[in-house]
């Protein structure tokens, strides 16, 4: 399940990495946002806000959280292609 979450997070443009302790993390697209998600157990992620742990999240909650926060990039054709 964690692979699915990490894959979807990457597809939506979030930063996914492994910290010094070997734990998976998902970071926001916008560097001024102060949250991160960290895999705590096999099926639980821990939400941090400002480096303070807040709440454990199930995988479905993580996907819902990320979906609400993703930046949707839409294609805008150049002026020469517009009709």
Question: Can you tell me about this structure?
Answer:
By secondary structure, the chain is α+β, with helices and mostly antiparallel strands. The chain has one domain. About 25% of the residues lie in helices and about 35% in strands. The protein is built from 2 helices and 5 strands, in the order αβββββα. A 5-stranded antiparallel β-sheet has the order 1-2-3-4-5. Helix 1 runs parallel beside helix 2. About 10% of the residues are buried. The mean pLDDT is about 90.
Q: Structural class from helices and strands?
A: alpha+beta
Give the ordered list of helices and strands.
HEEEEEH
Instruction: Please give the share of residues in helix.
Output: 25-40%
**C-alpha end-to-end distance:** 45 Å
What characterizes the major β-sheet? 5 strands, antiparallel
Query: What integer value in Å does the Rg equal?
Result: 15 Å
Q: Look at the structure and give the mean pLDDT.
A: 88
DSSP strand content:
25-35%
SS summary, helix count: 2
Would you identify the regions where 5 or more consecutive residues have pLDDT less than 50?
A: none
Number of strands: 5
Shape: globular
Strand order of the largest sheet: 1-2-3-4-5
Give the count of structural domains: 1
């Amino acid at each position: 399940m964690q692979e699915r979450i990490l894959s979807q997070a990457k597809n939506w443009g979030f930063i996914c990495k492994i910290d010094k302790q070997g734990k998976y993390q998902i970071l926001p697209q916008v560097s001024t946002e102060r949250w991160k998600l960290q895999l705590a157990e096999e099926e639980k992620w821990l939400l941090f806000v400002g480096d303070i742990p807040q709440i454990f999240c199930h995988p479905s909650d993580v996907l819902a959280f990320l979906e609400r926060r993703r930046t949707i990039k839409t294609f805008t054709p150049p002026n020469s292609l517009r009709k």
